[in-house]
Amino acid sequence: MSNFTNTYHALGTEIKLTVFQEGQVPALDKAYDLIQYCEDLLTVNRTKSEIMSINQASGKYAVPVSQISYDLVKEAVRVSQENHGFNAAIGPLVKLWHIGFSDAEVPSENEIDHRLKLTNPGRIMLNDRERSVYLLDEGMELDLGGIAKGYIADAIKKLWLENGIDQGIIDLGGNVLLVGKSDHESGLWNVGVQSPFDTRDDYLGVLKTMDYSIVTSGIYERFLNKKGHSYHHIMDPKTGYPVKTDLLGVTVVSPRSIDGEIWSSLGFYNNYAGTLKLLDNNSIGLIFVYKDRTIRLTDNLKKKFTLTDTSFTLV
Asked: Coiled-coil stretches, from where to where (predicted)?
């Protein structure tokens, strides 16, 4: 089977897009154009974007935005207001800690307490008719970093299917979304699940799946070491500190990549038992990887996942 892969850099990561017919190669650049367009709208790592316009107007007025931005904000707010750990209003805390950047520091208790008051998702007002977003309190900030890549991956898959691309791989650096059937007789894909102790090319196991999304989040890629303590980048909206957890990584298998992003966050906040209580959709499966090298799977993945790294143990 021939494949045609282009590598790009966007969304703060390396992106690999693959098709399997030479005549479909132009679809790779079209997908990259879509990524750049969405990033221009949604990023909070530049001074100008639609999301930054919403943040800069916090406490002042509502901001009308494009359909893409509005749809994503609306979904993020819906999940945030369920208060299970995912919070699109976490921006002030993310900015305060700034983990993963050269100026990252451990904030004071007073700074954390002040920013926590600005992370209430109930203070985000949406107007469907005007397609506008209003952050009611000055200093509030949206951060869609925990959901935007999934939204963009789903948008690429939709674009490809509409243009007759019936087989491909969308890899947005930790977010893999499969398109169509594989060339195996079963039509299923074999996907390596990343080991949290190693580089991106080392796997702890192989997952056999339909053309689903595989999203992996972990505390091992961005962290801050200060005075003998290590702080990862996944913030707890209840405490203002990184989530206290024995988890190293959570992988989510789901039909939509945006759901993979959401459930990987929920997995970290709620751990294995708590996440099972929230799950009401059997099409979503999770793999929990712990610091003691144990792995827990949801029941719907137990026949689909094969452990290949014998230093780990399935529980």
From this structure: none
